[in-house]
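Need fresh eyes. Consider my entry:
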Amino acid sequence: MIKRLISVLILAAAAVTANAAAPEPEKPKVQFAWGGDFGASIDMSGNDMSTIDFDIAFGMKRGWINFLGLGVQASIPISNSCRSYPLYLLFRTNFTDRPTRLFWELKAGASLNYLEHNHQQTGAYGSTGLGIRLASGRKFSSHLVIGYSYIQRRRIVGELTHDFKDLHFASVRLGIVF
């Protein structure tokens, strides 16, 4: 009887000790992240402004936030000498702490527009799209994003009136994040 009681007490003590020694689940760490994209945007607004795009962004990632940071893009039209340089806040998420193939991307900010006839203006910039993670390792992840982009342009009244219309793009970009 005493042997049984001692055995039960030892098992109970071992169970309590095992529960106390069990590690807590790890909280996701905040990590510095940076990356770049290369892509093309097709002008859907009929302004003949289809572009080649280069992006670079710096920020952080943690848990379900795949990327949160600041970025800059150079949009260079294929058929003319206009340029746009969007500055934006970039947010990417897959809505879960687990790695998945699909994610959502959102960009919002302002675009510095250098237009025909030596005009310059600043307008709103926005972009959203769905991304697919292509390959990843411990220190990098590559992706493909297909989406929609918007650049605001306004009418300029002066000696001559120039009616610059807003731009709407379908875009595709290939990128990497470290």
The mean pLDDT is 88. Strands lie at 31-43, 51-62, 65-77, 83-93, 102-115, 119-136, 141-151, 155-156, 162-163, 167-177. Residues 7 and 13 are 10 Å apart (CA to CA).
